[in-house]
Amino acid sequence: MNPLIAQSPCPCGRLNAARRPLAYGQCCGRWLETDAPAPNAETLMRSRYTAFVLGRAPYLLQTWHASKRPSKVSFDPGVKWLGLEVRQHQLQDADHAEVEFVARQRGPGGRAVRLHERSRFVREEGHWYYVDGEHR
User: What 8-state DSSP symbol labels residue 3?
Assistant: First the structure.
């Protein structure tokens, strides 16, 4: 991993104990740059947001549950991701969880868009996967 990228603030916005942004290498970079699985649904959701910011389609496809995985992921040109707010992480049981979040972006032409979703996740063989989400 490039040391400059590793030390830059992680796009997901996670904070450390001192309420300072975690570096990419200490946060989502651990999951996007290796084969290590995210330890929980919230971490997977944050790393997927970061993958959208960075345009990392292979990671998004790899972490999408096979039952709902699209054949490809495309990115809208000119979109700038502005931030992520995780509102709730709820474990239903050991292998099912939901994460509610709001992601903000600015599209081409400067139009602001707010994506509010309650996402569903499942864990299989020690790996968490995004299943689908309900827009709010």
Answer: H
Distance CA 29, CA 25 (A): 5
Range of 50's domain? 3-135
10 neighbors 21 (Cβ within 8 angstroms): yes
Please give the Cα distance from 31 to 17 (Å, whole number): 20
pLDDT of residue 26: 95
Residue matched to tokens 């993958």: 51
For the chain, what is the domain count?
1
The percent of residues above 70 in pLDDT, for the chain, comes to: 100
A 10 A CB-CB count for 56 gives 19
CATH number of the domain bearing residue 112: 3.10.450.50
